[in-house]
Amino acid sequence: HRHFISAADLNAVQAAELLELADGFVDLNRQTSKKLDLLKGRTVMNLFFEASTRTQSSFELAGKRLGADVVNMSPRSSSMSKGETLIDTAVTLNAMQPDLLVVRHASSGAASLLSQKVGCSVINAGDGQHEHPTQALLDALSMRRAFGRVSGLTVAICGDVMHSRVARSNVSLLNTLGATVRLVGPPTLIPAGADRWGAEIHHDLRSGIAGVDVVMMLRLQLERMQGALVPSAREYFRFWGLDREKLAAAAPGAKVMHPGPMNRGVEIDSDVADDPNISLIQNQVEMGVAARMAVLASLAARLENRP
Ligand code: CP
């Protein structure tokens, strides 16, 4: 594919190749000199209609470490209508001849829509509740480096699955890579039809994470909820917040992940999140740069023959 819109764009061989490439970039990023020229002469445009700390800065670093020119744009979504304005924006940007366009937008399907209107490669950096494929890639890279493999692991994705693009992309990529996936959350936060995604559904945190290798906690996405559905933080933490006591149900040596940003004391206890022996959360951030370098390099290689 010219674009990277969904984790399902990757088959098992392509996913393994990207992870291998990214793994090498992790080692490069730990060196004093981090610059390559794989993307020399290329232009990467970051177009973030929604807030981001990790994804935007890691795409910027990834592009720069590969030698590309990187342009960051953060349009104020409040002043733009969806649909028409998005297409207008895409056509305008396309006229500036970028090679790679990295897009985050609050509407599911936005990245796919843009990809049909531009001549460059489009990378989905999160579209509404739909997908966040580079997050799934960096999560798989984090697991691979922690366990030496992804295949055969059991991963529980817990909490607000309903509003989570991270969950959807992870279920897809983890299945492609041969992991077993559970979705764990209250019935109100597991979407109808999730039983067809390729994951077991559990409605109790302790039994849902029993024996798993990885507990991936999701942010409670209050900004995507209607008032009537919003639980209190204290009530949510009591049943769905991961603390050391609940984590004891997981396999010995289990690792804890969270895509960030975290709501401490809501879905995760700081005691667990900050323990370097069990938490991969900082590793995930580090892997984000390498995973995005791999995606940029791989798509740029496909553009090589473009006039
Ligand atoms: N995990 C993630 O996408 O974080 P940001 O929203 O900070 O980019």
UniProtKB/TrEMBL annotation:
Ligand binding (L-aspartate): 82, 165, 219
Pathway: Pyrimidine metabolism; UMP biosynthesis via de novo pathway; (S)-dihydroorotate from bicarbonate: step 2/3
Catalytic activity of the protein: carbamoyl phosphate + L-aspartate = N-carbamoyl-L-aspartate + phosphate + H(+)
Aspartate/ornithine carbamoyltransferase Asp/Orn-binding domain sequence ranges: 152-298
EC number annotated for this UniProt entry: 2.1.3.2
Residues holding carbamoyl phosphate: 54-55, 104, 132, 135, 260-261
UniProtKB keywords: Pyrimidine biosynthesis, Transferase
Enzyme class: transferase
Gene3D superfamilies, A to Z: Aspartate/ornithine carbamoyltransferase
InterPro entries associated with the record: Asp/Orn_carbamoyltranf_P-bd (IPR006132), Asp/Orn_carbamoylTrfase (IPR006130), Asp/Orn_carbamoylTrfase_sf (IPR036901), Asp_carbamoyltransf (IPR002082), Asp_carbamoyltransf_Asp/Orn-bd (IPR006131)
Residue ranges annotated for the Aspartate/ornithine carbamoyltransferase carbamoyl-P binding domain, each copy included: 2-144
Pfam families in UniProt: OTCace (PF00185), OTCace_N (PF02729)
A GO molecular function held by the record: aspartate carbamoyltransferase activity
Function statement: Reversibly catalyzes the transfer of the carbamoyl group from carbamoyl phosphate (CP) to the N(epsilon) atom of ornithine (ORN) to produce L-citrulline. Catalyzes the condensation of carbamoyl phosphate and aspartate to form carbamoyl aspartate and inorganic phosphate, the committed step in the de novo pyrimidine nucleotide biosynthesis pathway.
Assigned protein family: Belongs to the aspartate/ornithine carbamoyltransferase superfamily. ATCase family.
Family annotation (NCBIfam families): asp_carb_tr, PRK00856.1
Summary of subunit composition and partner proteins: Heterododecamer (2C3:3R2) of six catalytic PyrB chains organized as two trimers (C3), and six regulatory PyrI chains organized as three dimers (R2).
Protein name per Swiss-Prot or TrEMBL: Aspartate carbamoyltransferase
Native organism: Caulobacter ginsengisoli
